[in-house]
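Figure 2 data, in text form.
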Amino acid sequence: PLAVRSSGLFEDMLSQPCAGIYDTFILPNNDPDESIRLQQLTDAIKLIYCSIFSPEARAYFEAVNYKIEEEKMAVIIQKAVGDEYDGVFYPLISGTAQSFNYYPFGDFKPEDGICSLAVGMGNYVVDGGQAFQFSPSNPKKSLLPADSLRGKTQKFFEVIDMKVSERDLLSGEDSCYSKLDISEAERQGNLMHIASTFDINNGRIVPGTRKDGPRIINYANILQYGKFPLADTVDFVLKLGEYALNTPVEIEFALTFDPITGENPLFHLLQLKPVIQSAEECVIDRKTIQKKNLFLYSEKSMGNGRLETIKDIVFVKPDVFDKTETIAIAEEVEQINKILKKEGKECILIGPGRWGTRDRFLGIPVHFSQISSARVIVEAGLDGFEIDASLGSHFFHNITSMNIGYSNIPWLEKESFIDWDWIKEQRIVSDLRFVRHIELREPCTVVMDGKKRLLIIEK
């Protein structure tokens, strides 16, 4: 299989990189007719060049004041990383890692970094799937307690179906992938070092797959018991990249194993890019905060600076949210976004779960072009819908590089909050089935302190 991907000047700019807005195609490259394989390759190359002019790319260029005519692009053709198992192709482990963790909690520090792992093709991770997260500098301590892993473990993985040689590339890069239940990876003998088993009788998690019971993808034999030094390798590469670029970095990588023995892991470094931190500095003194004057307060946020011109708030209505209707919600958000863009307005965007996720059951699967009017984006937890903060995705990377305020407010958080009662009192501009657009009488004041990771919005 071949990975056909873009390499544009704008993608790796140190000042404001853009990642994931151009298409990438994974081709099976297995048709017995060479002319068909060549046609698929040339089609993929043309479509990657065409993706420069997609609504997603245009919205991003407009937001960061880039001109499309200044972009120059090469197209890279690479051997895809992975092995074939029962007619499907994938690496056993794919991942992303950042040398700076914007959402640390407990004993973790931002400098400890963050790594996200998943079984199968890496698009699952970069597009916001339910990956396993840990700190490369402290791999024995997961970012989630063991008792919460059962409901938040990876349930499916993505592969290249080698039994199908033709692809409808016009339908987009998703046409390259097939989705399988995680049990298929175990049937192929690929979870022995990756999964653990929940022992129902004793209420504990046992590393490995020898016992019967629900599987939990937590990489215990690798991270807890040192089957091989994955965490050390990731930590080393992050530190090296950070030293070389003099800024926090993000990497994408994959691991393959000998398909016969399941041993001899090989670490493939696929991409390294800078994670830009805003030089603008804004300081919030916790002692002076009057929470009664705020409609939003978050201690898990990103961004720096002060905004004093926003009067519009777009939010997913908590009382009617349905996680099976997130595609419809994304369309309603896009509908309001088009109106705001036409009127030259910016907004605060609030919704449950992960914004920009590939998995529509984890949040709202929007592209940047659908929310390009947002200057502050908030992930708000709901009762029964508590999803970990977005990390490691292309969508997330571009949001941060543009210094758009980004905040996570867990359900029943003791300190962080949203004053929903106050929001409901404001003038309604449009009220759709799932999404409401309100306008304030006067602009609100948004203050973001990047060093303290605080975000406050005054009424």
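Caption note: Residues 34-50 form the longest helix (17 residues).
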